[in-house]
Design a protein that fits this description.
- By secondary structure, the chain is an alpha+beta fold.
- It is 31% helix and 29% strand.
- It is built from three helices and seven strands; from the N terminus they run H-E-E-E-E-H-E-H-E-E.
- Helix 2 packs across helix 3.
Amino acid sequence: MTGTAERALAGLGIELPTPAAPIANYVGFVRSGRLLFVSGQLCLVDGKPVATGKLGAEVSVEQGQEAARVCAINILAQVKAALGDLDKVIRVVRLCGYVAAAPSFLDCPKVVNGASDLMVEVFGEKGRHARTAFGVAVLPGDAAVEVDAIFEVA
């Protein structure tokens, strides 16, 4: 039987992928007490970025939002691997979004909404979180978006 969060994902037509293996000397997640820290997840589907380049140049806000949503799906895959059950999430504490952006691009918060919105769709009120959205020069693999997260867990 699936829990509330997984039923919400199914209702959205989302199946969690196998979590991506780290590409350097780090791990996908670390649990410390009741906090679960998920390493930055790129906007990868089947190992390839869904959007490459810079927001405000090659990538539109809408494409960036979808890329951020993919990052959030990959975060949830890491959470599932860490906990075995998404319903062990007590609260989404914080998301941090990194947006590869042209120097004049000012809509990083709108892009990262793609990840934030999914957390609320899946977890309801406990999906509301603190957040930071940064514009950066470049991300691994020329990905357009990367997001990391902190969760309070049971």
